[in-house]
Structures are given as C-alpha cells and as structure tokens.
C-alpha cells in the first residue's frame, strides 16, 4: 500500500515509517522544505498547501505533525504555535484529501489524551467529554479541523496518544538520563495518573487503525491500565537499578515550566476501550514491559 505520513521525522513518525517500509509498504513523507527524494512531497501547513501528487494513489494517510508540547515554555506565542501547527496543518491536509478524485480509504489523524483534561482518579474512555484548559481546547479544535475529510466520506480516526515510553524523545527521553544519573523522582505528590504506551505498541496501534475498517472517531492509544506517577517512578528506579529519592516539588515545576506544569501535575486515567474492543493485543501492557522495551538490547 502507498501511505502518506506527516511528522515523519518525529519520534512516532520515524518509527512508523521504518515499520511500514520493513513490511514492503511505499511511504511518502511530507516535508516543509523542498523535497530531495522521490519518497518526499512538499506541504506548507500554515499556508494551507499540500502537494496533491504526494497524496495520489495513497490508500492511507497518517497525520502526526505538530509542535512539541513540552519543547518550550508556554509563552503566548508558543501556545499559538502549538495550536496553529495542529489545527492549520490538519485543516490543510483534510481539505487536500477531500479535493482528490480518488481519496484514500482512511485518515489517521494525531490527537492526545490531553483532550480529557485532568480526570483525577476517574477512569475515562473515548466516550468521555473534553476537559477544561488549554490542551483540551487545542485537541477539540485539532480534531474538528479534519471535518472536510470526514464529510468527503474518508474514514477518519483520531489517535489520542498518551505518554510514549521511548529513549529517543518525548517525556521519557528526558526521564531516562535523569534516572540513570540517580536524579529521578516523583513529580509533585506523585498521585497523578499517567496514561502511557510503549513506542512499539504505539506504532502497532496506528497500523491496527489503518487495517481495521470498524475503527473511526477517537481511539485512545494508551496501555490498558494507567499508573500513578509514583508507581511509574518506582518501576523506573527498579528496572534501571537507581535510587528514586529526590521528588520534584510542585512549586519547583511551576517555576521551571510555567503554565505547562499544571498539565505535568494533572492526572489523566485514560483507557483504550476501542483498541481492546477491536481485538488489538498489546506487546507491552505493563509499565515494566514498556520500559524494558525502550532499553537497548543486551
């Protein structure tokens, strides 16, 4: 199958491209610079341009592009970049797909469990409403920006991803070096729930959505049972054979991270109801399995 991918150089996108190509799929990577190979096509998400030649003949499109939520302090300008990179890019892609004479069968569009906001210790699945705050509002707009694709009859699924356990990037990319140095510890009181997923399960789940016609709308990409930050910290310390005795006070996080600290300290207990109902089998259902999957092979 010919599959187009945006965000193909990111943590999830690059792993997905490798997996698809290893199984013989033709992958077209959308880039914002001038293409340098036959496997690249240009797009300008802010300007609303998507090269239709790159989409031609695609059976599926996976849209993962967007500015990193935790890459910078949340100034007004960076919050606008977080929103615009998702909303404008999704709208541009959805409009381009809707205009094709032969559109793909499926669009898998990135989203996040940040949609639910702070749920405390209350479990939520895909039927839960959006929460309050900046990230939930971004997720609502982000998903709504794909309306043109849905109206054109393209099966559209929103991959609401949790915290991806990987050495190469994301939250865990920062945590692994800290724990190896003996500087890891719970964040705040540690009672907030973390909805996590291993990188290989994330890639497998995206591919499962592509291959499962019954899956559309929101799909939580998280391990079956979220854990508290304290529980995650204890397992990290045990697996890496390092102490975890230096908790990071909430006030310190607020000083360093600003507004983003409230989301780091917030609790999201999201469960992957639709993935499980559709028959998806996790390779790393537990946090220890997910952490060990992220470590180098012995």
UniProtKB/TrEMBL annotation:
Gene3D superfamilies for the chain: NAD(P)-binding Rossmann-like Domain
Top-rank taxon, per record: Bacteria
Family: Belongs to the NAD(P)-dependent epimerase/dehydratase family. SDR39U1 subfamily.
The protein, known as: Uncharacterized protein (TIGR01777 family)
Residue span, NAD-dependent epimerase/dehydratase domain: 3-214
Start and end residues of each DUF1731 domain: 248-293
InterPro entries (UniProt xref): DUF1731, Epimerase_deHydtase, NAD(P)-bd_dom_sf, SDR39U1
Position of the signal peptide: none
Stored Pfam families: DUF1731, Epimerase
